[in-house]
Automatic annotation (TrEMBL):
BP GO terms, sorted: thiamine biosynthetic process; thiamine diphosphate biosynthetic process
Keyword Flavoprotein: no
Ranges of residues in domain Pyridoxamine kinase/Phosphomethylpyrimidine kinase: 19-269
Domain Thiamine phosphate synthase/TenI, residue spans: 325-493
Uppermost EC category: transferase
Pathway in which the depicted protein is active: Cofactor biosynthesis; thiamine diphosphate biosynthesis; thiamine phosphate from 4-amino-2-methyl-5-diphosphomethylpyrimidine and 4-methyl-5-(2-phosphoethyl)-thiazole: step 1/1
Residues binding 4-amino-2-methyl-5-(diphosphooxymethyl)pyrimidine, per UniProt: 342-346, 373, 412, 441
Organism lineage string: Bacteria, Pseudomonadati, Pseudomonadota, Gammaproteobacteria, Cellvibrionales
Catalytic activity: 2-(2-carboxy-4-methylthiazol-5-yl)ethyl phosphate + 4-amino-2-methyl-5-(diphosphooxymethyl)pyrimidine + 2 H(+) = thiamine phosphate + CO2 + diphosphate; 2-[(2R,5Z)-2-carboxy-4-methylthiazol-5(2H)-ylidene]ethyl phosphate + 4-amino-2-methyl-5-(diphosphooxymethyl)pyrimidine + 2 H(+) = thiamine phosphate + CO2 + diphosphate; 4-methyl-5-(2-phosphooxyethyl)-thiazole + 4-amino-2-methyl-5-(diphosphooxymethyl)pyrimidine + H(+) = thiamine phosphate + diphosphate
Name of the featured protein: Thiamine-phosphate synthase
Record note on cofactor: Binds 1 Mg(2+) ion per subunit.
Amino acid sequence: MRDQILTDTPIVWTIAGSDSGGGAGVQADLLTFADLGCHGCSAITANTAQNTVEVVAINAVSTAVLDSQLQTLQRDLFPIAIKIGLLANAEQVLAVADFLRTLKGLKPVPVIYDPVAVATSGSGLTEGDITAEVKSHLIPQCDLVTPNLHELEWLTQMKIGGADSILSAARQLYIQGGAAVLVTGGHLQLRPGEVSDLLWDGYKADWFIGREVQSENTHGTGCTLSSAIAACRALGYPLRDACVVGKAYVQRGLRLAANKHIGAGAGPVGHYGWPLELADFPEVLVPGETRAQDYGLNTQDNMQPRVQGFAEMDSRKLGLYPVVDSVEWLQRLADQGVRTLQLRIKDPGEGLRQQVEQAVAIGRSYNLRLFINDYWQLAIECGAYGVHLGQEDLQAADLAAIQSSGLKLGISTHGFYELLLAYRYRPSYLAIGAIYATNTKDMSEQLQGVQKLARMVALLPDHPLVAIGGISLQRVPEVIATGVGSVAVVSAITKSVNYKRTLAELKALLEDKHAEVEPC
Ligand SMILES: Cc1ncc(COP(=O)(O)OP(=O)(O)O)c(N)n1
Ligand SMILES: Cc1nc(C(=O)O)sc1CCOP(=O)(O)O
Ligand SMILES: [Mg+2]
């Protein structure tokens, strides 16, 4: 195995069939990898003869031919992620499963399997039945399986009729093979106009709701989705982020290719680059919203209805936003002219209420935008400007009470999935973190970097956004170059040897009108 250090671009493999028509299979996979910034490699399982209206031949390669491609790739182009598509017979399934077992023994590699066995036209794509080998040997080597409803029925032998049966079958498939399951919903609309995918990872069910696109050009959507997810995994995106970005990539391809004419039948989905428009991204279903019933959620009686729309702030750009752990720090920074502040007390002693009351009093006398972290009841009772909550607080806090008290609400997010989820509440601002590694809190699994930050800012150019995590004075210019309007800092100020000087420099960067960058 050569060291991945020799490669600047993440390497992603596709193990799949060639589509001579260029719309699906390896051809769609390689276009997707390139579009999303990865280097694609292929191991071809079958040389299909097809166009947009017919599949004439499958032409499976021998397992020796398949294995020689895999072994050759492994020696020089070790993958960061793998997508698997058409495996043409049981021998191929076993050969790939064996290969993956050995490969994953060398290094963990996320494997995404799109279980292709029957074409949308209904033509069988495999030589003989591969069900037993797929279930017992292949899926246990995979991290995610992306069946459509027909494929889910095939793999579970369960009849799918509605949301409950989709979830039951996904759970069943997970129990059988241990891989997370993303059920794609192109074949059944649970609500008119909504094309929704279900993710079950053994812990949590999530529905990603997309809008129907009227288009004949849908060939290759399954291949493209699984490849986009593999590419995102190779780029370091966690599973849920990879799924929502993958779905947005396909949505963009459907939308922009809708009026193209390629062949007489179903033309290919398009490949149009990284999705940067919110309209292409799915909505993440939120517990408590009315339509959750149609998706098999809201089954508990005590579920709080979703609350949406919190008080707006006087500015979309808050500029510098220090987060401090004491009333003393609050006072010092207010004295220096800071306008936006957060009180974040993690080890509350006896006098918590008193500290919040003092903080609110300072906030009033200096006309601060003062947010209280975590303690939303106290924030309401004491009349703070706003409250800041984490994702895990969203189910526990009384959002309706926060909303009706007129308090502003900020919500933490860590990646695309959490951003889309939190946006469903339309809070006063969304925080995005951790941008860089930080010693203030263990965020090592949730680092975003400035490229991802810029992509998230592009999705929500008109919504107040705050960047947080590891932001030092030196890093502020590249953070604000993303278009984010607010920068939250802890240690840059509280650990500074000269906080007044650091503060002045931060303010110069963040509150000087000329330093403001319009969102992209
Ligand atoms: C502006 C801002 N962004 C994010 C956070 C983190 O909040 P949370 O996820 O609730 O984590 P804790 O701060 O409670 O550890 C924040 N406080 N402020
Ligand atoms: C409190 C906190 N929340 C984060 C998030 O990403 O949600 S990062 C973070 C720590 C920020 O401290 P510093 O500026 O010292 O890195
Ligand atoms: Mg919190």
